[in-house]
Amino acid sequence: MSRNDRGASLIFALIIVTVVSLVVTSVIALTFTSTRTTEAMRAQAADTYGADGAAQIAINALRTDTFNGIPGSCVTSPSAMVLPSFYPGADGSAPASAYVSCAPSAGNGASSGATSANASPGSAALTLGTGTGGEDGIYVGANAGPIKIRGGVFSNSTINAAAGGITNTYDNPPTAAYNLARGACVNQNLIQPAAYTTCNYTAADPRGTDPGLLTPHGASYDPPADAPGDGTIGACPPGAQYQTVTPGRFTSATALNLMTGCATGIVYFMPGTYYFDFNDAGSHVWNVDRTYLIAGTPTIPLDTTPTPAQMPGACVLPGSTSATTTSGVQFVFGGDSQLALSHQGSPGGQIAICASKSPSGPPIAVYGLKTALGGPFPVSAQSGCITTLPPATPRCSLISTDQSPNTTLTIQGTTYAPRAQLTVNLNNSTNQVFRWGLIARTLYIGTTGSANLSLALIDVPDQAASPIPAPNIMYLTVYLCRAASTCDSTGTPRLRVKVRVSAQPPRVVNVLSWALAS
Predict the structure, then answer these.
(1) Which member of 86, 258, 308, 347 has the lowest number of beta carbons within 10 Å of its beta carbon?
(2) Which parts pass through the membrane (predicted)?
(3) Are 455 and 474 within one domain?
């Protein structure tokens, strides 16, 4: 009996078709998965390259101190930079943008003494007065030529270059030779370098702020401890070579004016803190005349009358290797107490003041009190003609010097007197120097016609010029936004980088860790 096998053939055909379909479907699925994986890998690689490139740009910006276009940004406070349409999209898609946030490590400061990153007060000369009563922030009447200032100049009002002008000689880097005035400049052509001079400056900038008001700031700007007692003035018995003054509070300008320096004419202020709050009858001006005032650990013999050339280095400099946190002095002024350097005979007054090495912030040599100190030996805040606005006439200056060729003034340490005026008249001597910069309400500079202006009147060290302690550990987080013209922290975090920035220029940035962000 013959059989019909058509049904079996159909079954075999269906099996073959099914198997082939499954194989083809699997191959198609595999191919699709492979394609999607390839595309994802390509996009992921693009993200990786983009994040890497954005981090490299941010690191270079840290190295050149141009992060976010603002000097000190990121190093002193959290900030960020945006890189719009930064990286080409994968397979011709729209470009991706990046956002790099930067935050300093909490509590990790680079400051560790007078040669650390914040050994500078920021600018060489910072004046905080706002021009009340027509007062200039900085006035220069230099008949003998331009005054040299080595470091940034920032006036919160005007710079009046009435004669001679200002030449900023800082060159490490040259962009640190800025001259900035919130107000107008008189004879702006006399303020050099012109390329780094800006008048009517309106940008937000911490360099124009009293560093004692910034957060964080070096502890140097905090008020000193209360006076522990009254200081003493040594006598000059027969045979005494020099006169010794011990730390503490002084309430009589007359008593200080009677100092003679004994046989050598040297008045030696031992290391420590001195508080001047004159409240006796008569003038409150301590006049240094015909004596050699050496304040701090001496570097020259005290039994021999020094020469004017010895005075700038007559005490241990706060930046030297032999400096300690107790090797120098701090002169603290309250009330309307004033210090004047003058010449009423031969020799003229000679002053050398050396601050101690500072554990945090610049080494402060002269401190003008903004708030009173208490305790059994109180010291009042600066007041009276020192802080009068409109300014007192004639000028009432915390520190003033005359034009005698026989006087020298050297302050080795920052002068911090944000409420007071300083008046400096230059002469034939080159030793009138404010080392480590000054901060005051206003600054008046005059000269004789034959003044020697070869050296900088105000100088700031080569260490990084930051007005607040600069943390040297920073964290960079890179966010990417695919196919977007801009980006922010809502983007996808791709990379986190921990870096360390060197404390001294030229800046070196070392990468401590480099990891994918989750």
Answers:
(1) 258
(2) 7-32
(3) no
Whether residue 181 is contained in a domain is answered as yes
C-alpha–C-alpha distance, residues 204 and 407, integer Å: 40
Helix (H, G, I), strand (E, B) or coil at 208: helix
Contact predicate 215/78, CB 8 Å:
no
Q: Are residues 129 and 276 in the same domain?
A: yes
- For residues 242 and 266, the answer to whether their CB atoms sit within 8 Å is yes
User: Look-up: residue for tokens 């270059």?
Assistant: 161
Among candidate residues 75, 81, 79, 82, the one with its CA nearest the CA of residue 104: 75
220/79 same-domain check: no
Angle at 38 between CA 32 and CA 41, to 5 degrees: 140
Task: State the Cα–Cα distance between residues 194 and 305, nearest whole angstrom.
Answer: 44
Query: H/E element holding 345?
Result: none
Model confidence band, residue 327 (pLDDT cutoffs 50, 70, 90): very high
Confidence of residue 459 (pLDDT cuts 50, 70, 90): confident
Which residue is listed with tokens 């075999």? 12
The tally of domains found in the chain comes to: 2
Same domain, 168 and 215: yes
> Please, are residues 349 and 288 in contact by the beta-carbon 8 Å criterion?
yes
Return the CA Rg of the chain. 33
Say if residue 16 is in the same domain as residue 55. yes
Q: What is the pLDDT of residues 113-152, one digit of tens each?
A: 333 434 567 789 999 999 999 999 999 988 778 889 988 8
Q: State which amino acid sits at residue 471.
A: P
Answer whether 146's CB lies under 8 Å from 453's CB.
Answer: yes
Q: Does any domain span residue 301?
A: yes
Q: pLDDT for 266-287, tens place per residue?
A: 999 999 999 999 999 989 999 9
Specify whether 168 is located in the same domain as 63.
no
pLDDT at position 89 over 80: no
- For residue 353, what is the enclosing H or E element? strand 350-354
**1 within a domain of the structure (yes/no):** no
Domain that holds residue 481: 6-110+470-516
* Range name among 40-44, 151-155, 318-322 with the lowest pLDDT average: 40-44
User: 256-268: string of b/e by CB count within 10 Å (b at 16+)?
Assistant: beebebbbbbbbb
Backbone phi, psi, residue 514, to 5°: -145, 105
Residues 407 and 322 in one domain: yes
Res 113: pLDDT: 38
Domain end: 459, 478, 499, which one? 459
> How far, in Å, CA of 56 to CA of 59, rounded?
5
Q: Which residues contact 113 (CB under 8 A, 6 or more apart)?
A: 119, 357, 358, 359
CA count, 13 A, side-chain hemisphere, 397: 20
Q: Distance of alpha carbon 209 from its chain centroid, rounded? A: 10
In a domain, 117, yes or no: no
Give yes or no for a cis peptide into 206 (omega within 30° of 0).
Answer: no
The span from the CA of 475 to the CA of 78, in Å, is 10
Structure-model confidence comparison of residues 88 and 360, the more confident one: 88
Q: Which two tokens stand for residue 297?
A: 């650990």
Pairing of strands 338-341, 285-288: parallel
